Amino acid sequence: MMAAGSSIEPFWLIFANHNTPEIYALLESMRIGNISKTDAKSNISDLNDPYAKEPSRHRALKINGHKPFCAETPSSLLIESFNTPADLFYVRNHLPVPEIDLKTYTVEIAIEEDTKKTIDFEGIKKYPKYTVTSAIMCGGNRRSEMAEVKPLKGLSWGVGAVGNATWSGARLCDILKDLGINEEDYDHVQFEGHDVDPSGMPYGASIPISKAMDPRADVLLAYEMNGQPIPKDHGFPIRVIVPGVVGARNVKWLDKIIISKIESQSQWQQGDYKAFSPNTDWDNVDFSKAPAIQEMPVISAICKPEQSEQVKIKDGKIDVKGYAWSGGGRKIIRVDVTCDKGNTWHTADLIKQDLNAKEGRHWSWTLWSINLPVDTKLKEVEIWSKAVDSSYNVQPETVKNIWNLRGFLCNAYHRVKVQLN
Asked: Burial code of 111-135, b = ≥16 C-beta within 10 A, e = fewer?
């Protein structure tokens, strides 16, 4: 449909994650014939691989998709540091990583598509520099658990599609104020990236203008990650950082900002990154009936020990570690852990939090740890974790009751079964 009568090859190369045996089998079932060898030879495309210039990646990353590149941090490495190193930070790309020349790079700012200002990189750096420590989480984090309940569509993420980093750059509210934008006149701020599909359509997303113009929301046009220039995979030279909001709205390789009365009309705002009732399937889904995901729900995950790991008991206890986070700037106030199916709960120690964060601006994750008492007569236990945030939101008990056809917002109790010795 996107090719609209033209060659489908450019799209096939861009969306190469569909290049799988399952898709080939589906296409084979639709075969109606073969073109002649002469025609086939005359139609050989000389297209270059759009992923040929992708950046190098850390070998420790767990790859969930090659083209476009998608990879998560192994859970055992995820909680080694409060700030995730840039080369171990999860990567969720939707299109090839664009080649950008900093010397000619600019950001266009438009009001309802009419250009009002174009700022180059140095121009953005002239605004006051702010630093925010914030987690970013993919809406599909922990999707693999939903796929165990019932098949769904999406990359099989574990617990590692999340990272915490210190981001520095200009506040979006300062730039919009400089333009004289009146918040009451508009409803949304759209972002477009330099990453484009073969038809020239860019990756796009939007956030409410109330968040974009609120100084307390800490929305940044970030050019540094953990004190260094943002790497290519994470949006060089500028990435939008919207703390407390699903990763899909944190647009990378920023090209254009549009102040508008309407949401972004991109596929990723209108036809994806939305969640539905468990009874909604691909025959009755209507994406227009659900709002785009913005702030994320409360979540926790057990990172150590890992599923099926052999765990040594010491003084009747085992070591358990993980992370917790809640969107919207809500602070994690408690993490409860059990290994007897909820008959006995134990409160974990919150070992690392951003203690300097103001109320309503707890953008960072929380790392937690517990020496969990276990029944030493057992050979196997299943550990559960659940987090509670400052609004007393708590994780739902089962994945089954929050299952949705795209596998988003999987925040049920996290469960890890381990062997004891």
From this structure: beeeeeeebebeebeebeebebbbb
pTM: 0.91
121 in Cβ contact with 252 (< 8 Å): no
- pLDDT at position 10 is 77
Q: Which two tokens stand for residue 62?
A: 């767990």
Instruction: Provide mean pLDDT across the span 334-350.
Output: 98
What is the pLDDT averaged over residues 131-154? 97
The answer to whether 415 and 384 are in contact (CB under 8 A) is yes
Residue 400: alpha-carbon gap to chain centroid: 22
| pLDDT tens per residue, range 230-276 | 999 999 999 999 999 999 999 999 999 999 999 999 999 999 999 99
Q: How many helices (H) and strands (E) does the chain have?
A: 9, 22
Nearest to 207 by CA among 163, 235, 247: 247
Residue 63: C-alpha distances to residues 80, 155, 156 (Å) = 20, 10, 10
- pLDDT at position 47 over 70: no
What is the C-alpha separation between 341 and 382, in angstroms, rounded?
Answer: 8
Percentages helix, strand, coil for the chain, rounded to the nearest 5? 20, 30, 50
Q: Report the C-alpha gap between 381 and 415 in whole angstroms.
A: 10
Q: How far apart are CA 110 and CA 120, in angstroms?
A: 15
Coil, helix or strand at residue 419: strand
> Using an 8 Å Cβ cutoff, are 93 and 233 in contact?
yes
Q: What average pLDDT does this structure show over 273-291?
A: 97
Closest CA to 179 of 169, 168, 191, 189: 189
The tokens describing 350, both together, are 């919150």
Query: By three-state DSSP, how is residue 257 classified?
Result: strand
